[in-house]
Amino acid sequence: MSKERRNRDWYGKLDRDGFIHRSWMKNQGFPDHVFDGRPIIGICNTWSELTPCNSGLRELAEGVKRGVWEAGGFPVEFPVMSLGETQMKPTAMLFRNLLAMDVEESIRAYGMDGVVLLGGCDKTTPGQLMGAASVDLPTIVVSSGPMLNGKWQGADIGSGTDVWKFSEAVRAGDMSLQDFLAAESGMSRSKGVCMTMGTASTMASLVEAMGLSLPMNAALPAVDARRMALAHLTGNRIVDMVREDLKLSDVLTRASFENAILVNAAVGGSTNAVVHLLALAGRVGVDLRLEDFELGCEIPLLVNCMPSGKYLMEDFCYAGGVPVVLSELAPQLRKARTVMGADISEYVEGAKCWNRNVIRAIDNPLKPAAGLRVLRGNLAPDGAIIKPSAASDQLLEHEAEAFVFDNIEDMKANIDRDDLPVTPDTILVLKGCGPKGYPGMPEVGNMPIPARLVREGVRDMVRLSDARMSGTAFGTVVLHIAPEAQAGGPLALVKTGDRIRLSAAKGQLELLVSPDELARRRETFQPDEPHYTRGYAKLYTDHVLQADRGADLDFLVGKDTRPVTRESH
To answer: Which of 464, 457, 373, 447 is CA-nearest to residue 411?
Structure first.
């Protein structure tokens, strides 16, 4: 016996409430028969002209609608907050949880039976999934897709990754400002997310690896007609998922999270995946912990894309995309159900690699061990992370004196001083940029190399902070130190001249200062005054969890699948 559909409580009643729900919807021209009990599919759209990554989603929504109508469903599109990573201040991460609240309450309050999530830019994908997971309807994702390869002076250039390189070249005097500005227009040539393996493309790849989208969702360029066809087919599939009662929690299992960790390593994915997967797991009740990311530490780097390699997402698509990566990892993959209803192995069927320069075979990787490393020690009691595939090998085992910036303003004001007392061996430390401290945990962990050292040819140093870094960035950067400085973590006690030891191989991050001295420093520690005292930012600061728990809000962990019983009339 089929389960009674959720939309009946809105549109199936022959009373005053049913009259109101149906009648107001009919002012859009919907005829009587679409309220006959067929699946009602919400299309959750983060389209916005202020979010360039997502500016193509209006067209993709039409593709989804075609597929829903064709499969016998009733599509209804609704907007939610859009998070433009490159446009929002102080950081889009501050608002990820607000988007999740928007998505959760929109899905819960309206009479839909299933939902298609349209997103792409870094925080939209995890924010939408977190919100949807807390209601737990049948759910599927269509990503906006990457931009076409950037082009400048006859070569491919990648968003983010080459920006950092060009910026440092200008600071070093190796690139003119005129050339720097000329590259600006050639970098972003179409709608879509970063065409490097930044956070947006990482999350789209992990969505596919977790079985939350149709195959090839991650790599098809935003302007490729095949993405519109994928949207159409997704519209078909979500209707069937409602009929099968295949909910998000049926797909988001422990096994699917482990597959995501393995694939994140193989694609050289963003460190931001850690906080997003931890937060998402908290919504569905999967006991995922920071240590679990060590599952990927011995997985080889297979995808030769910036920032860990040389190619871009368009090349990744033409080489075969995520299905090829899954096929190479097949012996390690966990059995996990997908939105297709079958095991993730179905995504591998027929996968062929068309360019082994872009996607390497498992026995011929770019690097033999590429996964993120989890660090612990007296400087990071609750953990920190580092991305070896984007780091300098010689710096992964390093001990030196620290130079400390107390906050982001201190760093910006002093990093280019010619008399800054640092050497290439110095460990740069940045405080006050964690979830509470900034607030929002911005992507500033990959601090600029001091200008004097840049001019001397230095391009990497050990840098550590309680911040994040862009998935397009590179360098030997220790991130997500927990607890953060603002919460009174040991990072708050570090002073210039202290010695710090980093061992990526041993997973250690140690502040070489005696416990007695640290205790004396703690007696005088005072957190900074909060930057915000009202509105959502205050709510966030008061309730955000630390990075090792995904930086979700404490009262949003878990889900509430109870039906809405109270009427609005």
So the answer is: 447
Domain 38-149+189-348 has CATH 3.30.70.120: no
Walk across the sheet containing 40-45 and list its strands: 74-79, 40-45, 114-119, 139-143
The CATH superfamily of 373-531 is IlvD/EDD C-terminal domain-like (3.50.30.80)
Return the structure tokens found at 195: 């065409």
Nearest to 197 by CA among 346, 311, 340, 97: 311
Domain limits, the chain: 38-149+189-348, 151-187, 373-531
Count other Cβ atoms within 10 Å, centred on residue 399: 14
Task: Compute the distance between CA of residue 434 and CA of residue 52 in angstroms, rounded to an integer.
Answer: 26
3 state SS of 320: coil
Cα end-to-end distance, the chain, whole Å: 32
Whether 158 and 472 have beta carbons less than 8 Å apart is answered as yes
Query: What is the spatial distance between Cα 329 and Cα 339, in angstroms, rounded to a whole number?
Result: 20
Tell me the pLDDT of the chain (569 aa) as tens digits.
Answer: 357 899 999 999 999 999 999 999 999 999 999 999 999 999 999 999 999 999 999 999 999 999 999 999 999 999 999 999 999 999 999 999 999 999 999 999 999 999 999 999 999 999 999 999 999 999 999 999 999 999 999 999 988 788 888 988 898 888 999 999 989 889 999 999 999 999 999 999 999 999 999 999 999 999 999 999 999 999 999 999 999 999 999 999 999 999 999 999 999 999 999 999 999 999 999 999 999 999 999 999 999 999 999 999 999 999 999 999 999 999 999 999 999 999 999 999 999 999 999 999 999 999 998 889 999 999 999 999 999 988 999 999 999 999 999 999 999 999 999 999 999 999 999 999 999 999 999 999 999 999 999 999 999 999 999 999 998 888 999 999 999 999 999 999 999 999 999 999 999 999 999 999 999 999 999 999 888 889 999 999 999 999 999 999 999 999 999 988 887 76
The CB density around residue 318, as the number of other CB atoms within 10 Å, is 14
- The rounded distance, in Å, linking the Cα atoms of 444 and 397 is 22
Torsion angle (degrees, nearest 10) of CA 355, 223, 240, 560 = 100
Burial class (CB in 10 A: 0-12, 13-18, 19+), 230: buried
d(Cα 522, Cα 526) in Å, to the nearest integer? 9
Predicted TM-score (pTM) of the model is: 0.96
Q: List, as own/partner pairs, every contact residues 286-289 make where C-beta atoms lie below 8 angstroms and the sequence separation is at least 24, other chains included.
A: 286/252, 286/253, 286/254, 286/257, 287/254, 288/254, 288/257, 289/548
